[in-house]
Write a structure and sequence with these properties.
Elements (H helix, E strand, L loop, with lengths): L2 E4 L9 H9 L6 H5 L9 E5 L2 E5 L8 H5 L5 E4 L2 E4 L9 H5 L6 E2 L5 E2 L13 H4 L6 E4 L6
Antiparallel strand pairs: 1-8, 2-3, 4-5, 6-7
Length: 146
């Protein structure tokens, strides 16, 4: 399965992945109207300080703790991608506490949000990877470690 991978050696800490993610999931036609003067709510975030920065996003685990702990059944897998049915989410945020990577976040409306590989916004590939100027974020298939 294709996933988002991050190479912290190449990350510039520019936060463009966050802006591209927020725009791709905003439903707006242009970035200015979607983001200018507004709080952004990306499903990926840049962490770190100084010379070491990296993007944190969902790893779409084989056996996700977030799905096992979801009391409403809002979290589920679609073709290997962990997705949230926001209509089912009751906002308990147990998934936020259970994610070992800190990739599930509270959304602005109280429901949980996380990277869904831009499957629902017709970008073709995750907007964070498509907009990364240094290719620190890539969307590719890799052999799994055994």
């Amino acid at each position: 399965m294709k996933r988002v991978y991050v190479n912290e050696d190449w990350c510039l800490g520019c936060h463009l992945c966050e802006y591209n993610c927020a725009f791709a999931n905003s439903g707006a036609r242009d970035m200015v109207s979607a983001l200018k003067g507004k709080a952004i709510h990306p499903r990926i975030r840049v962490e770190g300080e100084g010379d070491i920065t990296y993007a944190v996003s969902c790893r779409h685990c084989k056996d996700p703790l977030c799905i096992r702990g979801c009391i409403s059944g809002a979290l589920h897998k679609e073709n290997g991608t962990v997705c949230i049915d926001r209509d089912k989410c009751v906002g308990c945020l147990t998934c936020v506490l259970l994610c070992p990577y800190g990739a599930v976040l509270p959304g602005p409306d109280g429901a949980a949000m996380k990277c869904e590989l831009c499957l629902k916004n017709s970008c073709g590939e995750p907007a964070c990877a498509a907009g990364c100027p240094n290719r620190a974020i890539v969307y590719e298939e890799r052999e799994e470690a055994k």
